[in-house]
Amino acid sequence: MSETQHDAALYKAPVIAQEGPSSWLVYTTGLVLALILTATSFWVANTAVLWEPGIPLGLAVLAIAQMGVHLVFFLHITTGPDNTNNVLALAFGVLIVFLVVAGSLWIMADLNGSMMPLQPMNLRMQH
Question: Element (H or E) spanning 17, and its range?
Fold first, then answer.
């Protein structure tokens, strides 16, 4: 009998995430914020109210805010101690994407510099 109690004390059932009103509130808040940011991005791209050279910067800021909303409200990436592995995996993914994009741009710039200059073509009809 004591062995059964001892085994039962060692076994703990896994905790299943509770799906309650608070989780619906988090997802709904994230959805509303994402929709607002998306609508604002379309407005920024199609308006003449903003200074035209500032539009790309405004769109970049809205895109970064959109990524933040997705990370916090949908992927639940927070700074808590239980999310250390998630944050490290996200940082590694960002590093890999940066290396691929930067390497591609570097290679394309090098290839562009190595190309022969274009010579004017003689398009006259020869008889």
Answer: none
- Is residue 80 classed as helix, strand or coil in its secondary structure? coil
Structure tokens at 26: 């988090």
pLDDT in tens, 43-101: 999 998 889 999 999 999 999 999 999 999 998 888 888 888 888 898 999 999 999 99
pLDDT digits (tens, 9 = 90+) for 14-25: 555 555 567 899
CA dihedral 66, 72, 74, 80 (to 10 degrees): 160
- Give the amino acid at 107: I
Task: Please say whether the beta carbons of 69 and 61 come within 8 A.
Answer: no
Paired tokens of 47: 């308006």
Distance between CA atoms of 75 and 68, rounded to whole angstroms?
Answer: 10
Dig out the tokens for 118 from the structure.
């274009």
